[in-house]
Amino acid sequence: MEKRKVERFDLQIETTLNVRDETVKDKLPILFTRDISSAGVFLVTDKPLPIGTSLDLNFLLSQHDLVDTPQYELINISASGRVIRTDEQGMAVEFDKQCEIS
């Protein structure tokens, strides 16, 4: 039985991270989302950050993916959140309440 309160979308979106916790020194490559919702995102990585790590996230969307246009412009959507769960496939990030995407 599905217990989720918000709808998830299976989207692979290029994502960059800025770790706000000074105790975490890991430099992460560009990651991709596995799924995203208005409340959070799952990022695919074989090196998840520790639970509780605070992040700034930048989702990079191609305008061409959204509308059929010959121009290639990137749309940047910024959010912040923290890692709430990790597993062998990656990490789940919950968006800060003021950063929910709708």
Characterize the structure shown.
The structure is a single chain. The chain is mainly beta and 102 residues long. The protein has a single domain, classed as Thrombin, subunit H, CATH 2.40.10. It is 4% helix and 45% strand. The protein has one helix and six strands. It has a six-stranded antiparallel barrel. β5 and β6 form a beta hairpin. The relative contact order is 0.24.
Give me some keywords for this one.
102 residues; mainly beta; Thrombin, subunit H; 6-stranded antiparallel β-barrel; 1 helix; globular
**How far apart, in Å, are the first and last alpha carbons?**
25 Å
Class from secondary-structure proportions = mainly beta
Total number of strands = 6
Low-confidence stretches: none
What percentage of the residues does DSSP assign to strands (E)?
over 45%
- Cα-atom radius of gyration: 14 Å
CATH architectural type: Beta Barrel
In the sheet with the most strands, the strands line up as: 1-2-3-6-5-4
Shape: globular
Query: What is the H-and-E element order?
Result: EEEEHEE
Level of helix content? under 10%
Regarding CATH, which class? Answer: Mainly Beta
As for the number of domains, it is: 1
